[in-house]
Amino acid sequence: xxxxxxxxxxxxxxxxxxxxxxxxxxxxxxxxxxxxxxxxxxxxxxxxxxxxxxxxxxxxxxxxxxxxxxxxxxxxxxxxxxxxxxxxxxxxxxxxxxxxxxxxxxxxxxxxxxxxxxxxxxxxxxxxxxxxxxxxxxxxxxxxxxxxxxxxxxxxxxxxxxxxxxxxxxxxxxxxxxxxxxxxxxxxxxxxxxxxxxxxxxxxxxxxxxxxxxxxxxxxxxxxxxxxxxxxxxxxxxxxxxxxxxxxxxxxxxxxxxxxxxxxxxxxxxxxxxxxxxxxxxxxxxxxxxxxxxxxxxxxxxxxxxxxxxxxxxxxxxxxxxxxxxxxxxxxxxxxxxxxxxxxxxxxxxxxxxxxxxxxxxxxxxxxxxxxxxxxxxxxxxx
Amino acid sequence: xxxxxxxxxxxxxxxxxxxxxxxxxxxxxxxxxxxxxxxxxxxxxxxxxxxxxxxxxxxxxxxxxxxxxxxxxxxxxxxxxxxxxxxxxxxxxxxxxxxxxxxxxxxxxxxxxxxxxxxxxxxxxxxxxxxxxxxxxxxxxxxxxxxxxxxxxxxxxxxxxxxxxxxxxxxxxxxxxxxxxxxxxxxxxxxxxxxxxxxxxxxxxxxxxxxxxxxxxxxxxxxxxxxxxxxxxxxxx
Amino acid sequence: xxxxxxxxxxxxxxxxxxxxxxxxxxxxxxxxxxxxxxxxxxxxxxxxxxxxxxxxxxxxxxxxxxxxxxxxxxxxxxxxxxxxxxxxxxxxxxxxxxxxxxxxxxxxxxxxxxxxxxxxxxxxxxxxxxxxxxxxxxxxxxxxxxxxxxxxxxxxxxxxxxxxxxxxxxxxxxxxxxxxxxxxxxxxxxxxxxxxxxxxxxxxxxxxxxxxxxxxxxxxxxxxxxxxxxxxxxxxxxxxxxxxxxxxxxxxxxxxxxxxxxxxxxxxxxxxxxxxxxxxxxxxxxxxxxxxx
Lengths: 383, 237, 293
What we know:
The complex is a heterotrimer.
Chain A: E1 31-34, H1 38-57, H2 64-89, H3 97-115, H4 119-141, H5 146-166, H6 168-171, E2 177-178, H7 192-216, H8 218-228, H9 230-235, H10 240-266, E3 268-269, H11 276-289, H12 294-314, H13 318-333, H14 337-349, E4 350-353
Parallel strand pairs in A: 1-4
Antiparallel strand pairs in A: 2-3
Chain B: E1 5-14, E2 17-27, E3 32-36, H1 43-50, E4 55-62, E5 65-66, H2 72-77, E6 80-83, H3 95-102, H4 109-122, H5 124-128, H6 139-151, E7 157-161, H7 169-186, E8 189-193, H8 197-203, E9 206-211, E10 214-220, H9 221-226, H10 228-235
Parallel strand pairs in B: 3-8, 3-9, 6-7, 7-8
Antiparallel strand pairs in B: 1-2, 1-4, 4-5, 9-10
Chain C: H1 2-32, H2 39-55, H3 60-83, H4 91-113, E1 128-131, E2 134-137, H5 138-160, H6 162-172, H7 174-179, H8 184-206, H9 216-231, H10 236-256, H11 267-279
Antiparallel strand pairs in C: 1-2
Helix pairs in contact in C: 1-5, 1-8, 1-9, 1-10, 2-3, 2-4, 2-8, 2-9, 3-8, 5-6, 6-8, 9-10, 9-11
């Protein structure tokens, strides 16, 4: 991997991009855009619109099975997004994401089956509940050093399945619960699988936009300042504990929303779906997809949905081997994950130049494109 | 006659900041060499360069053998004992354990025991606190421990970084007294970085003055001592 | 009363198994500053190696010795190749690497040996011993004796030998250690090797009691975490005492508290982890500095 170039290039204004994946040689990009300029924002808006339109069009061109898989990809992407907020941007470790996912899933299931709540309400309900629980959990837990936080969240994840089984009356116990799925409204000429896909998409897109906003706004800046220098952040009046708990709460809320969508998509919940492996899988998704990037959540979700399908046909154990080996390989070879890899490709074509050091406004895309939170913590592993 | 330690054209940097701009020092075997100079002159950096803790270019030879690029523990195993600014003790371990660690590279268990006993004689306070955690010792006692620890290695070269720092004058005198005693008894070659120029020049055979990463004065201790600028800047008269 | 003593002794025996793995965790925590999430899986793998050799006709003692040697070398290799390059890179990186290792080793074992259950022979004779009118299983007593022996040996190593002193020094102050000539990297490797050995010991002790399959150590790991958390992650004594407490508590709860069925027994150590980490993170014997952000 080439070393970051510290020398300013020709007409560059000053700050090099600062990411760890530098460009080799003197390859000039085809296009240079200034960050934050109208051109930049227009291009980004257009790219986003194109992406959404393409995404919305997919289900009409593929079969039921693929639609189902893609719907799940969107669900996992939302969950991964939440975890990325916590781990990638905030640098906190959580091995318990699956627990909040489960809470969201069962909230939706219980509300629909036992309380006959219309399904659209279950998603916000799940979000509120998991947000509150995430905050409540976060306040004491986030005082702990990283390792201990990992352990506590691990305990949460392990406790999930047994606890679900324990409260049989509510959760249906080991056998799980069948949940009636959303039906297509009469006036919409789409198939059920297409409808589910579009439903989930209509939730996922705002969630992605919200995440992008969160990371760029006040919360995002507070997070960056905390992650980079905790003590300085405190003296500047950033209440570490509150900010971290808020992030944890948001992350839990994302998991909750994803969980509710999961229930709606599958029409069925069972305790074994929410075991420890699920939390590990989410973590693998964001690391492989790209820590600290919004796009990484989607890439990671694609990975965890499709890789096992092919791997399992070869050997039951292959999925695990691939996950484990890829996780380690990513850390060593491409800490920015797949998103980081794609970004370095994109950089050869389009360069988004930082403005000269005025207020240090973060550039387009994810705030932490610089990958400062990517594992490696600033230091490349010497492999 | 080649010196035990020869430093030629030593350049050292901390990242982009250059701390040493070409330092030349020769330490003859059996002698004490003092390095004086103001804060930030590069005195500590010189010692750290010798024990492989800083990126350097130039020549460093211990009895003709190059030390450049060797790891810290390798250099220690070659017989270079370094008492750094932080003293290099193990606060969580006992005094006795600290001393035993000093002798880690030695194979003569009986000799080590005898040496430790000798150090308890020289520093009775250490004997009293042999079973206590080193972190509980006073500043002066920790410094004694650090020096004993370093000398237990039976080093060919002893590097001392500001031994008097933070110590009361009486304790410092005692310390330097022991250093002098050891030097006479065992002929240990010493390279001493000190702010207390008086004490350093009393003990030393030769002296170098460093300023802003360069040698500005060098010579026998007596000569350096009577030098005008030295007297004014470092000796106070 | 008899029953009570039996349950307590069984609890201490269980706790001894957790304690062996907890000791491994503490050893690595003290030397490398991280918790090795893959410790249990490494132990499971070594246990499978022992099983494979024994199943292939070797006598049990030989299979065990070979498996222990394998574990020791494997632990050293993992430190040198996988962990050393990322040592300074922050907790998140190390957690992810050890998690990746967890997943990889678990799957590798499944690949090599499949996913069906197997039996594993106990190194102790079956049967009971009568002590003061109470019937206690020989196996339980044997396990406790083995752990006590291990603790004694480790104590001797670390407190009375030069090597042990050097290992402690390297863990406490790597910089000062280098100044006295200690090869810190080598000490870390030894620490990992030793920890892997302890894990393998836990594996072969627990395998006869449960079924040997890829998920053998998953549960044990949770208990070991709880024991180490309770005792304090930087205290070997704490690891053992904490694990005994967990073992006894779990067995008592399982026997006398009706609501705690087999499925929910795992909630006991989980609750302990929760409470300890949120109330007193340094545990019973650990030092407070290691826990606060």
